[in-house]
Amino acid sequence: MARRFGRLQLALAAAGTAAAALDVVADGWVAAGYVRAGRPGLAALLLALLALSSLATQACSWLWLRSDPPAVRPDLPQWLLALLHLLQLGVGWKVCWEKAEEEEEQSRMAFLSHDISMLRLFETFLENTPQLTLLLYVILETEKAELSQGLGICTAFLCVTWSLLDYHRSLRSFLQDKQQLSWRSSILYFLWNLFLICPRVLVVALFALLWPYGVAVHFLLLWLAMFFWVRLQGTDFMETPGPEQLYRAVVAVILYFSWFNVAPGRTLYRSIIYHSFILVDSTLLAVSWLCCCSAFEEHSYLVLLLCAALPCYLLGLALRVTYYKWLHPNLHVQPEGSYDVVDTSARSEEPEFRLLSVPDLVNRRMQCLVQAQFPFSQPVGQRCLNGAADL
């Protein structure tokens, strides 16, 4: 079995872990600053976002753990397992660094690494994107930026875009016929997500500057629209209907800020619909702020910043097109005898997943996501159950 982590993958994983740890430190620093400044409400809101994101992520992780095959579940008492479960970052670090010479152990590590990538994506979007909006709102309101706030914004943006890159790399590593991302492809993937998310956060923060409670209504309405859109696409990610609603709710939060595909089939038209909708919504938020901003001279720098948001978003779209047209890994043929196989017109209708030394250890959750992300046909009625079911 090919190793899950080469030098590039290890460097990315280590950098992502460091960014996540730095982000936690920055959150505490910012919250303490709000308390010292006599604004405990902002500190409470910041920490509440951290707590809610952690709660939702831990709920998903616990549900997945309960449905995992016995081979990846530690033989421990339930209370101790629940306590150790809170240390999922430590598990992720072990997955990155453990040598695991035995193929069976490598299979277990690969299984866990895919789940950790998904959980980090969930936690990052539930925590960092709302915190980004809050931090930017406070800076715009007070017209000054503390060092802790600047650090918090930088680490939050880094964590969000890094989690998207790590998630995409994890999807590709699950398939045998997908090449891994090169340095150039990884950098471009990172940048176009950054350029698409930055304008979105900016216009939401500006809207909140005039209507602090209005942005909550806007988020709720858009979240409901995204939730029903995900539901209409017939997601079947979790193994029971109740947890499936939790998954859809989390995805709806991600869609408020960034594109996230959840259904199989061609993604081009869904992507066009989504980006057009977000572009129109962001434009309406920006126009609302411009129309209601009474003192343009006092906020001239904000007007210039807002004018730069549209080119930034369009640049992000252009970089995305560039990535898929010229730098997508499938465009480059690998040397003969390498582990991956280049996509061809004669490919089979079923996705070829990476072979594991333990056949039962197939991460069905990642299998569902891969079949949604990449254009493979799936037999009617097949469910992506986790565990020891047949492929």
TrEMBL record:
It is found in: Cell membrane; Membrane. GO terms for biological process: apoptotic process involved in development; engulfment of apoptotic cell; phosphatidylserine exposure on apoptotic cell surface. The chain crosses the membrane at residues 42-64, 186-209, 215-234, 246-262, 268-290, 302-323. The keyword Glycoprotein does not apply. One of its GO terms (cellular component) is plasma membrane. InterPro entries: XK-rel, XK-related_scramblase. It comes from the Eukaryota. Its main location: membrane. It is a multi-pass membrane protein. It catalyses: a 1,2-diacyl-sn-glycero-3-phospho-L-serine(in) = a 1,2-diacyl-sn-glycero-3-phospho-L-serine(out). Keywords: Apoptosis, Cell membrane, Membrane, Transmembrane, Transmembrane helix. Belongs to the XK family. This is XK-related protein. It comes from Turnix velox (Little buttonquail).
